[in-house]
Each structure stands twice: as C-alpha cells, then as structure tokens.
Amino acid sequence: MTTLDLEKSIVETAYARWAPIYDAVCGPVMLKGRRAAAEAARAVGGKVLEVGVGTGLSFDDYDATTEITGIDLSAPMLAKARAKMTTGRYPWVKDVQEMDAHAMSFADATFDCVVAQFVITLVENPEQVLSECHRVVKPGGRIILVNHLYSETGLAAAVERWAAVKTRSLGLRPEFPFARLQAWSQSNAESILVERRKVAPFGIYTLVTFERTAAALAA
Description:
Blueprint: H1 8-18, H2 22-44, E1 46-51, E2 66-72, H3 75-85, E3 93-98, E4 111-117, H4 126-136, E5 137-147, H5 154-166, H6 178-186, E6 191-198, E7 206-212, H7 215-218
Parallel strand pairs: 1-2, 1-4, 2-3, 4-5
Antiparallel strand pairs: 5-7, 6-7
C-alpha cells in the first residue's frame, strides 16, 4: 500500500522550515539529478518554467541559452531565490513568483520547456499539476521531471513504504510510483513519453521526459 498524496498545508509548513538550511542539506544530495534535468532543459532551450524553483538552487545549472521563470508555494524559499537574483550572477533568470502549480496564471503554450525537480511526488494532486504543465508548454515542447520514484518490489520498496509514514511531516514522499506518471501520459492524447532513465552514478533518481505533441498545434 502507498500513502496518500501530501496535503498542501504539510508541504508549505515543511518547506518554510527547510528554507534556512535547504541549500546546505539538499544541494549536495540532489546535485546529479538537478544537473541532469537542467541539461535536458538546456537542450530544448528558450523559455523554461521551473516548477518548485525553491531557493534557486538550480540557477547555476542554466545559462544564457535559456530564459528561466520559476514558481513555488513557499515564500521563505522564494526569498532565498530572489536574494540570489539580486547578485547579478543569473541574468537568464527573469522572474520567480509565488504560485500554486495546480492552477498557474500563465497563458496556454507560454514555455518551450517545463522542469519540475523533486516536486511531482510532493504535490497534492500530481495529475493536475502535470496537466497544468502540459497546458503552459508549447506544442513540441517538453516536460522534464526528476525524482526518486518508488522501487516497487524488494527490500528497497519495503523501506520506502516504512519511510513514507515517518517522513510526511518533512514534506517527503519516497514511495511515489512511475505508473502514475505513465497513466497520466497515456490518458492524454497530446502527450508522449520521450525518456525514462536512471540518473548516474547510483540510479537513486529517475529522469522522466514527456513531450506535448505537435498535434496540439494543428488542433
């Protein structure tokens, strides 16, 4: 059995607490996954939306081939991101906004690419967030996710199920299955799964890429 999706209030409270130490604690742990996602986004280029931009930990992973807009629920996390923007080191970061990814204020087909790093397993309704990402990305554009996904079987899966209950108050969810992402894509006629791969060296994280098909443009 897997646990229920995380409630918005749990995530907001948890990440307000994480904000002061997030870069120091999570930066090294998430480095390989973060860079893999940003590399995939740079290959697309253009206007990139980063969902769950947090403290702007990923700003260093982009460059002038991209124009970054970030959104996040957590005001304390965004305060850290805005402080980084004021240094002038990240001219490619155009804006960060406090926004719920379940109901984005952006117009349809605004971005060339949407990136969600370590986010989709934590939101209240993952399928709704995916649908919003699909709405705001252009036809031919990509949705890039990186996350730890549920191991499904064996000892690792048992540990993840046990940890799921223990870590909910920390805003973590280690037992989210890939099958939910796949089912969402299969139910959407304008979405295709482009890539699913483990991130080296240890395969702790999985990179998943969906494309909004060009058929959406014809429609």
